[in-house]
Design a protein that fits this description.
The complex is a heterotrimer of chains A (530), B (325) and C (307).
Chain A lengths: L6 H16 L7 E6 L14 H10 L4 E3 L5 E3 L2 E8 L2 E6 L13 H10 L11 H4 L3 E6 L2 E5 L7 H5 L15 H5 L10 E7 L3 E6 L12 E6 L3 H9 L5 E2 L4 H8 L4 E16 L9 E2 L13 H10 L2 H8 L4 E3 L22 H10 L7 E7 L6 H14 L3 E7 L1 H10 L9 E7 L6 H8 L19 H11 L4 H17 L3 E14 L2 E3 L12 E3 L1
Parallel strand pairs in A: 1-10, 1-11, 15-16, 15-17
Antiparallel strand pairs in A: 2-3, 4-5, 5-7, 6-7, 8-9, 9-10, 11-18, 12-17, 12-18, 13-15, 14-18, 19-20
Chain B lengths: L1 H26 L6 H4 L6 H10 L6 H13 L13 H36 L4 H15 L2 H15 L12 E3 L2 E3 L4 H34 L2 H8 L4 H39 L4 H11 L2 H29 L11
Chain C lengths: L1 H4 L15 H9 L3 H18 L1 H4 L21 E2 L5 E2 L10 H37 L1 H16 L2 H12 L3 H28 L2 H8 L4 H37 L11 H9 L7 H29 L6
Antiparallel strand pairs in C: 1-2
Helix pairs in contact in C: 3-5, 3-12, 5-6, 5-8, 5-10, 5-11, 5-12, 6-8, 7-8, 8-10, 9-10, 10-11, 10-12, 11-12
Chain lengths: 530, 325, 307
């Protein structure tokens, strides 16, 4: 049995093989990509950070490589399967060479997982994915991974870690990676030049085992300001950009020399509410007096959800670049519910629910949000405040840079979440529903690593049980069912209020197109010629 | 004079220590950087590990003493984000910023002084009034607004110049320089002009004011009476005297050029240390913020000293020494 | 404020008065038609800002009035309720004309408040330095030097990163960033005055320090202070706009002109020119008029003034 984790992945695996056979020799061509963020290091284990992982995707392979829908496809492992309840067996790909010419085998895998959690000075490494697992080399092309309890999401974890060479990489310092000395991977592109702040240059790896790279030279240029990035594309300085500001999409559509590629991401934008305090700091009675936290009342939460027009936010704030959300992940992802739809806008219904909850005149509330983290985050918060105010809940807005916001939202009030109603986003890194369920919905529990981002401290034993069951269920279909059920109960209780799924846009010069990725990454092998 | 310099050096050292304290403790009031770096699915244990790895679990005083001890041996801390020495990262990007700042300074002098001279010599002509009105507008325009307008006009609409980045560089003694290649010059033009705009206005106004005042002074009248040619009066006597305030102010303004390069570098994606600073502020990379500010203070201390000495060379009336003694 | 304080003696000792000092000041000031025009414009802007709640068509901060339905409408459009948006609306659905008038109010109050406080602080410190001399002066001027070494935009940036957003906070940041300019100016002119014979004479007469400082030295520093004050007010307004552009200035819900521009900045390439252009024009006019008036004041109040 080939053990790709989802039915869709199995189907796509066949397609992937077909594409490999199709790849045509390309004429010498360069590609310049303008990015909204900059990798902080060439070392793929230095920081588990979007821009770094994105770069790592081009230079390195993982045991299993996530495709554009985050389905794990065979990478340096050709297959994986559980051989008993606590052991996974990975069969490795033969005949693969690193960029430095050395051969790939099990030693590289073993040393990678030894190094990845232990990089000196790393601000946040890959230990999360590796702890609790022991790696054992069986032969040159077989590796066993053991855990103490059954661990169904093994490949989702290991698929995050770039495999480096035991000859050069494993003993290499971060500086040695940055200079290129240790930066040998097996990926489709190899390191050529790194000028911090200005550019990273990659060259094609003609010996790549998979689909051959079509670009001879790829230059990644960080241009953080949105309008500047668009200007660089229009001026012809770059071939393709990511993170197109929503405001510019209409104009770009009107240009003959620009092509747009769009796709939904794994990121849900949602509201978290204070479930745990009797007196919530940013909830006041009309006129400013104290009030028993109305957010603990399901009817009030429903009123808030109904008062928000997700269509209007999509059309007016996001310029169409959002999909109204009814749960934690968009349709098509593993473990989502088929029964949940986005809440319809119903301001009268909201007022009625408020009256029913004993608050016919509403109350006062402050919504907090970041202003530099998600697409149009501050504007979304402002739009929600307007809508809530119209439904009778007098809402003020306070937005702040993420450097201040997330600390305060997580631990600002003596180790507890500081705010009453917050706008946040969650991208499911693992590409399935257990990620948001564990982090956002499960009861906050330090020791178990549950509810780590549960900033509303929602707690429901029924949901906790369902999540726990799902996390140890090895059967895919049953696990998907449990995850969907947990989502339904949690959303029925409005543990969080989903707003929308973000839709991302890439813009390129005419003649190019980008295969949109749900993980929002921009990778050179996703840029195709028409 | 050497006593004076010694005193100034001592004072400067004190200043550096005081600044180190203010900046270090100030920056530590802002947010918790750990939350900037961890991925959201990490649990508390992971977060504590990161906190320990970055040395943020220690009491602030201990962190400060560590910082001072390291600073004395030339190490201003490791960047959280890049994992490399903060000072090294800044120095790595310093040539780009200095190149930009010097280019702007040069533009300010080359454009500003002739225009200011003209406006000062012929204060009532239409051209002078236009120059002065222009200088007020130049003074008033916010840098960021002008920057994006320049990109709009020269890069997008006209397509004459590239919009962002630094272009090809040449390696001179290990330092990357743009102005030696045509591509680099093209990349340099817009950001340098953007940065220079404020200073051009400043130089025009200083030169004009200096010229107008100097023309009434006895030594100019005397030179005229002696029958010296107008070009010699302007070129030698006048220029020498008005250069004093211009040199002083430009010297002092050099710091502000470097500061405003934060804005310019952000818009033009110029890979200098200003861009590094603003990104470090956004990402709470404290060691870089502290190291950057320490360096700016250091730079200023040096510039100030140099300006003081230059001043005494240019204007013998100014004597170095502590006044009031 | 300039016109009321000048007669106290700003220009009087320098030249013999032809008429009353105030009338002479007026006739000098009106020499330049540009300056008169600027002064009139500036007064209009101040009136608009002060009486914004009565003059603006909409209260752009009232979330019950502003509707996201009306976002990004071009100039001249009608709202759902039939109100005309003469300058269009911004990304949050605010009437741009109202937002600009209210933004003016915020920008001006930030600029003026920070200038007045910084002027007061700087004046006291500068006078102290000039009059006390010796070690105190050395210390103060060192601090001033450090302060000026760290460019205003940097100081404000760091301070706001620490303090957070808000009008009070940006005023604090601007005061801290700018007081040193006033201190340096006051000290420079006070030093000149201190050496004058009349001050020495006053000291010989045994007049109190306070009397010498406030009756004799201070009035002679007022002219340069006014000039620096106007320039710094304009500078404060521009600085606030820059800080907002860098994302640390004022909260989104009550935007100043600077914040309106940086919001509009996103729309620069999208053809929705009005969101960025109109607030930009308003800001430009404000700063330019202040600077022109300040320029003329400089020429009128003290032709020998250098800085």
């Amino acid at each position: 049995m080939k053990s790709a984790r989802t039915p869709l992945a199995r189907a796509l695996m066949g397609a992937a093989c077909a594409i490999v056979a199709f790849s045509a020799p390309a004429a010498a061509e360069d590609l310049v990509i303008g990015l909204d963020s900059e990798a902080t290091s060439i070392d793929p284990h230095f920081h588990n950070l979007g821009p770094n992982n994105q770069l790592g995707f081009m230079m390195f392979d993982r045991l299993a490589n996530p495709d554009e829908r985050q389905n794990f496809k065979p990478g340096l492992a050709v297959s994986w399967k559980p051989i008993d309840s606590t052991t996974w067996e990975f069969k490795l790909r033969e005949g693969v060479k690193f960029h430095d010419g050395s051969d790939f085998n099990a030693d590289d895998v073993i040393c990678t997982f030894e190094r990845a959690p232990n990089v000196p000075n790393s601000p946040a490494g890959f230990g999360t994915y590796i702890k609790g697992k022991t790696f054992e080399k069986i032969d040159d092309f077989t590796v066993h991974v053991k855990t103490e309890a059954p661990y169904p999401v093994m490949v989702n974890d290991l698929g995050n870690v770039a495999i480096i060479s035991n000859e050069t990489g494993c003993n290499g310092t971060t500086e040695a990676f940055n200079s290129g000395e240790a930066a040998a991977g097996t990926g489709p592109y190899k390191f050529a030049e790194y000028v911090p702040g200005d550019r990273i240059v990659l060259e094609a790896n003609p010996d790549y085992w998979g689909e051959k790279p079509i670009w001879d030279k790829v230059t990644l240029k960080p241009i953080k300001s949105g309008p500047s990035r668009v200007a660089a594309l229009l001026a012809g300085d770059v071939d393709i950009i990511n993170g197109v500001p929503t405001t510019d999409i209409e104009t770009l559509k009107g240009r003959d020399n620009v092509a747009l590629s769009q796709g939904v991401s794994n990121r849900v934008i949602y509201l978290h509410l204070d479930h745990f305090r009797e007196n919530s700091p940013f909830v006041k009675a009309n006129g400013g007096g104290d009030i028993k936290n109305p957010l603990q009342d399901l009817r009030v939460r429903q009123a808030i959800s109904k008062a928000i027009s997700r269509e209007l936010i999509r059309d007016r704030v996001m310029e169409g670049l959002a999909i109204p959300a009814g749960q934690l992940l968009p349709e098509g992802f593993f473990g989502v519910s088929e029964n949940l739809k986005a809440e319809a806008y119903d301001v009268e219904g909201a007022k009625a629910l408020l009256a029913e909850a004993g608050l016919p005149d509403g109350f006062e509330l402050t919504i907090h949000g970041p202003n530099d983290r998600y697409l149009n985050d501050a504007k979304i918060a402002e739009a929600i405040a307007q809508m809530l105010t119209r439904a009778g809940i007098k809402t003020a807005v306070e937005t702040m840079p993420r450097s201040v916001y997330f600390t305060r939202a997580s631990t600002g009030a003596d180790g507890l979440p500081e705010f009453s109603l917050i706008l946040v986003g969650w991208g499911a890194g693992s590409g399935e529903a257990s990620s948001p369920l564990r982090a956002l919905i499960a009861s906050f529990d330090n020791d178990k690593g549950m509810g780590t981002a549960n900033r509303g401290r929602y707690s429901n034993p029924e949901v906790d049980k369902l999540i726990e069951d799902a996390l140890s269920e090895v059967d895919d279909e049953k696990r998907a069912g449990l995850l969907a059920k947990a989502t339904e109960v949690a959303i029925g209780d409005l543990a969080i209020i989903p707003i929308h799924y973000q839709v991302n846009t890439w813009a390129s010069r005419k003649g190019l197109k980008y295969i949109p990725r749900t993980d929002e990454y921009t990778v050179a092998y996703g840029v195709l010629k028409d | 004079m050497s006593v004076f310099i010694l005193r100034r050096l001592l004072q400067s050292a004190l200043v550096m220590v005081a600044m180190a304290m203010i900046v270090f403790f100030g920056v530590h009031l802002v947010g918790d950087p750990v939350y900037m770096f961890v991925t959201p699915d990490m649990d508390q244990q992971d977060i504590e590990n990161v906190t320990r790895a970055l040395g943020l679990d220690r009491p602030i005083w201990e962190q400060f003493w560590l910082f001072i001890a390291n600073a004395l041996s030339g190490n201003l801390g490791q960047s959280f984000i890049f994992g490399e020495p903060a000072l090294g990262l800044i120095i790595q990007r310093m040539p780009a910023t200095l190149e930009l700042a010097f280019a702007a300074l040069l533009m300010a002098v080359v454009i500003g002084i002739p225009l200011g001279l003209y406006a000062g010599l012929y204060p009532d002509s239409l051209a002078s009034r236009t120059i002065m009105a222009g200088s007020i507008v130049g003074f008033s325009l916010p840098t960021f607004w002008v920057g994006i307008m320049m990109i709009m006009v020269f890069a997008v609409m006209l397509g004459w110049l590239p919009s962002t980045g630094r272009g090809d560089t040449v390696d001179v003694f290990g330092i990357q320089l743009s102005f030696l290649t045509l591509d680099g010059l093209r990349h340099l033009a817009l950001p340098a002009l953007n940065l220079a705009l404020l200073k051009i206005s400043l130089v025009i106004r200083l030169t004009r004011a200096g010229t107008r005042e100097a023309m009434l002074q006895d030594y100019i009248k005397f030179a005229r009476a002696k029958g010296l040619s107008r070009s010699r009066i302007v070129g030698v006597h006048l220029l020498k005297n008005i250069l004093i305030p211009v040199v002083t102010v430009l010297g002092l303004e050099f710091g502000s050029l470097i500061a405003f390069s934060v804005v310019t570098e952000t818009i033009f994606a110029w890979p200098g240390m200003g861009k590094l600073l603003i990104e470090s502020i956004q990402q709470l990379d404290r060691p870089i913020i502290v190291a950057y500010l320490m360096m700016i203070v250091f730079l200023f201390v040096v510039i100030n000293l140099v300006v003081d000495i230059l001043y005494s060379v240019l204007d013998p009336r100014v004597r170095l020494g502590d006044r009031g003694q | 404020m300039a016109s009321t304080e000048t007669p106290a003696g700003g220009a009087a000792p320098v030249r013999p008065a032809l008429d009353t000092p105030f009338r002479r000041f007026l006739s000098d000031f009106t020499d330049s038609r540009l300056a008169v025009l600027a002064a009139i414009l500036l007064v209009t802007i101040i009136i608009l800002a002060v009486f914004a709640p009565w003059l603006a068509p909409q209260n752009p901060y009232d979330l019950a009035v502003v509707s996201i339905f009306d976002a990004r409408l071009p100039p001249g459009s009608q709202s759902m309720d039939g109100v005309t948006f003469w300058l269009g609306t911004d990304g949050a659905g605010r009437d741009l004309l109202s937002a600009i008038i209210y933004g003016l109010r915020i920008s001006l109050s930030v600029g003026v408040a920070s200038a007045i406080i910084a002027l007061t602080v700087g004046m006291i410190v500068g006078l102290l330095a000039a009059y006390a001399g010796g070690r105190i002066e050395g210390l103060i001027m060192r601090i001033v030097d450090i302060q000026l070494s760290l460019p205003a935009v940097l100081i404000a940036l760091i301070l706001l990163a620490i303090l957070g957003k808000g009008i009070d906070k940006i005023i604090i940041a601007l005061v801290i960033a700018q007081w040193a300019y006033y201190a340096r100016t006051v000290r420079a002119s006070a030093l000149v005055e201190r050496r004058r014979e009349y001050v020495e004479a006053a000291a010989c007469l045994g007049l109190s320090h306070a009397r010498i400082v406030f009756r004799h030295i201070l009035p002679n520093c007022i002219a340069p202070l006014i000039v620096v004050g106007t320039v710094q007010t304009a500078h404060a307004i521009a600085l606030e706009a820059t800080l907002s552009f860098l994302g640390v200035g004022l909260p989104q819900t009550e935007p100043s002109l600077g914040l309106l521009i940086s919001n509009g900045f996103e729309y620069m390439l999208s053809g929705k020119y009005w969101i960025a252009v109109f607030p930009g024009v308003a800001l430009l006019i404000t700063i330019v008029t202040i600077n022109i008036v300040g320029d003329q004041l400089r020429d009128v109040l003290n032709p020998r003034l250098q800085k």
